[in-house]
Each structure stands twice: as C-alpha cells, then as structure tokens.
Amino acid sequence: MMGDGMVSMGNMIVKPNAVKIQRLFPKGGLNKASNGLDQKENDQKAVIVGFAGATADAFTLLERLEGKLDEYPGQLSRSCVELAKGWRTDKYLRRLEASLIVADENKSLEITGNGDVLEMTDGIIGIGSGSPFALAAARALMSVEDMSAEEVATRAMNVASDMCVYTNKEFLSYTVDDMSGINEEP
C-alpha cells in the first residue's frame, strides 16, 4: 500500500509529509505489536490501512476498525462489513467524511460511508483526489512483465502526482510481507 503526504485545506497545502497509511496489529493498536510480543509470535497478521478525507474522521474509523479486528480475529472481510454497518447506521459515525482501504496478505478492501465494502476484481484500489489517475496508470502497468507491485504503485503514484494538484511525491509504502520496517520511496 502506498500513500502520498499531501494535506490540504481548500487550495492551500497544510502539510506535505503526512502519514496516510497505518499498520494495525491485533489487540495492540496503531503501529505496535500486541502486548509487546514480536509480531512473528502473534498468531494474527498485521493489517495495513490507508485513508483519505478528514483526518480526525479517518482516525475515528481506524479505532473502530481496530475494535472490529479484535472482535473478529483473522476475519478481515467480516470486520470490514461490521465497521461499514456501524458507519452507515450510527448517527455520529454517519457524518464522518473519510474513506479507508484495508489490506492483509489475502485481500484488499475499500470501505465507504455509504456502507460499501468493495473488493476489486483486479486487486487494485485507490482512494483520494489523485486515485483516478493512479488507478488508470496502475492498471496499465500491470501488464508490464517483471514489475513488482511496489514498482507499479510508485510509477502510478508518480503519474497521479504529476496530474493532480492535491497529490505530491512524498510517498510512503508499507507491505504486508515486510512488517519489520517502513519502506519510503522518493
């Protein structure tokens, strides 16, 4: 999963290096292994989450998602559906303006405030203002042989940042396979 760092208010750049993707570990919170255990000792793999929209709203949803992942361990789809149900029906949550992408080693899902939990047939998902450009570029690049998913994502994000004024080149990339460190792309 890859995200840019742009945060804007209207037509003004507020922050160029925001972190829009997070790792959720079961029973452990954002960006930390559960109960101090090494992630390899934990029976449930980490989940990577990306967000777009209002930051406070996104973090509220991340906390709710974390609760659902703890409630339904190892069941990413069910956790996401339960989050979407609550998001759609709860009077407080209904007003939140954000979108989430959630991925584990088996699937990637988009969750929206309309109650949608979407799994794309080609496995490519994008949210945010630059996502149409990044999606189109990634889908075109998928046919290039010997190109890794990270290379496709980096090139697609470069296309998006060249075309969308609300997308910059401050990319951050997390992979499910490498949970020991953060991969930053130029």
Automatic annotation (TrEMBL):
<dbReference type="InterPro" id="IPR029055">
    <property type="entry name" value="Ntn_hydrolases_N"/>
</dbReference>
<comment type="similarity">
    <text>Belongs to the peptidase T1B family. HslV subfamily.</text>
</comment>
<dbReference type="InterPro" id="IPR022281">
    <property type="entry name" value="ATP-dep_Prtase_HsIV_su"/>
</dbReference>
<dbReference type="InterPro" id="IPR001353">
    <property type="entry name" value="Proteasome_sua/b"/>
</dbReference>
<dbReference type="InterPro" id="IPR023333">
    <property type="entry name" value="Proteasome_suB-type"/>
</dbReference>
<protein>
    <submittedName>
        <fullName>N-terminal nucleophile aminohydrolase</fullName>
    </submittedName>
</protein>
<dbReference type="GO" id="GO:0004298">
    <property type="term" value="F:threonine-type endopeptidase activity"/>
</dbReference>
<keyword id="KW-0888">Threonine protease</keyword>
<dbReference type="Pfam" id="PF00227">
    <property type="entry name" value="Proteasome"/>
</dbReference>
<dbReference type="GO" id="GO:0009376">
    <property type="term" value="C:HslUV protease complex"/>
</dbReference>
<keyword id="KW-0645">Protease</keyword>
<dbReference type="GO" id="GO:0005839">
    <property type="term" value="C:proteasome core complex"/>
</dbReference>
<dbReference type="GO" id="GO:0051603">
    <property type="term" value="P:proteolysis involved in protein catabolic process"/>
</dbReference>
<keyword id="KW-0378">Hydrolase</keyword>
